[in-house]
Structures are given as C-alpha cells and as structure tokens.
Specification:
101 residues; mainly beta; flat
C-alpha cells in the first residue's frame, strides 16, 4: 500500500468496474490506518478529460460488512451476473470478482 494524506492513511487500489454511463467507473480501494482495521472504499468517478479520473462520491463499507456485501452479491440472479466487458484501455485493472464468459 502507498501512503496518502500524510503518513497516517494507506490506500491500495484493488480494481475498477465500468460505470453504468459512458465516462464513468467505480474504483475499489482498500483503506487502512495504523491500528485500525482496513476497509473497502468504493469511489464513483467521472472522466475529467485532461484532469484524468475525478472522484464524485465515496462510500466506505464498514469492515464487518464486507462479508455481508459479498454474500448479497452472490444472491443476485444468474442473468444479472453477466460476464465483464473487456476494455481496450491499458490502465484498466479487471476486477477479480468478474465471471469468465
């Protein structure tokens, strides 16, 4: 993890999911601070052109809720769990939770 916001908070990018609109994505980040349990932060981002990706909203999942989130996703109907779209961009990391086609 690389330190951000001084030396007290660490972030590790886990991956990106394509957004539901063109020019949007969700960034998945592990956030940790010394002595505090790491958690997941989901960031809604828009393509800001020359500015790069700009975070519009952030949502943190409490550490104890990550397993509940995983279970909820597994309860989705099979047709909602479509294969991941492939991206031609070299800077996109495929989220490991995506199903193979």
């Amino acid at each position: 993890m690389t330190p951000t916001h001084g030396a007290s908070v660490f972030e590790k990018t886990l991956g990106y999911l394509d957004g539901d609109e063109t020019g949007t994505r969700i960034e998945l980040v592990q956030v940790a601070a010394p002595g505090v349990q790491a958690t997941l932060e989901m960031r809604m981002q828009r393509d800001g052109g020359d500015l790069g990706w700009v975070t519009q909203r952030r949502m943190r999942v409490a550490p104890g809720q990550i397993a509940a989130l995983r279970m909820a996703v597994q309860l989705m109907d099979a047709d909602a769990l479509a294969p991941c779209a492939t991206s031609a961009a070299d800077n996109i990391v495929v989220f490991p939770g995506c199903l193979a086609g």
